Structures are given as structure tokens and as C-alpha cells.
Amino acid sequence: MNRKHGIDILKQAGYKYTGKREDILHYFEEQDGYRTAKDLLSELRKTYNTISFDTIYRNLHLFVQLDILEETELEGEKHFRIKCVSDHHHHFICRTCGLTKEVHACPMQQVGEELTNFAIENHKFEIYGTCPACIQSQA
Length: 139
Description:
With 139 residues, the chain is an alpha+beta fold.
């Protein structure tokens, strides 16, 4: 997804367009992986020096609700990224830097075989670890 598509979804859902909301989406559009609200706050304070955590969290949760952003939890803290719109895939997420790599293998066929007679509605599969760059910097 890109920022323009996210703004279109926002407007279609009846929410107001603001420069801050576009800047939030621009931030995530430029990132390669999951980022925290704290990361976003640091970036936006360069332009909006009085922006609050409340404003950040309210918009992050709105964007997740509208399926513009994805969220995951790492080390007890929520992390966010722009929603993927490509083919079905899952993610490897580096616990150190947040880098995200698409993984195209999906375990759902095997899971479906084990859960016969169950109605599976959706799934999310994430792999956590350390990326090559972080492994090298830790060595």
C-alpha cells in the first residue's frame, strides 16, 4: 500500500484528511519494517514539536482499524508497518532492528489438515529472529 491509497481509504471511511495523517503514512511508506509509536513520535516532532503520544496512538489505531497499517507485538510493545497489498505472504521480523522480509511459504495447508471440521476464518504467521546485518554487527 502507498500513502495515497491510505488517504483514499481514510476519506472513504468518512475521516478527515490532515497533514499529520499524511505525514504518518509517509513515514511508514518510507520504512522497511515495523516501527514503534515512539519511533514515529521522534520523527514527527521534527515538524510538529507539540504532537502528543495520544495523537500518535489514536491515529495508529485508526489506521490499523481501517486496514491501512499492520501491527505486531515485539518484546511487549506494539510495532506498526504499512499494510502489504501484494500476494499472500507472511513476514520474518528482526527483533533487533525491525527489518521485515516477506516469506511466501504458508503453513495453512498443514494446519487445515489438522483442523478438519473447523471453520478457519483468517490467520497470521510471523517469524521472529535476527537479520544478517544485526548478526554481523553483534559479532
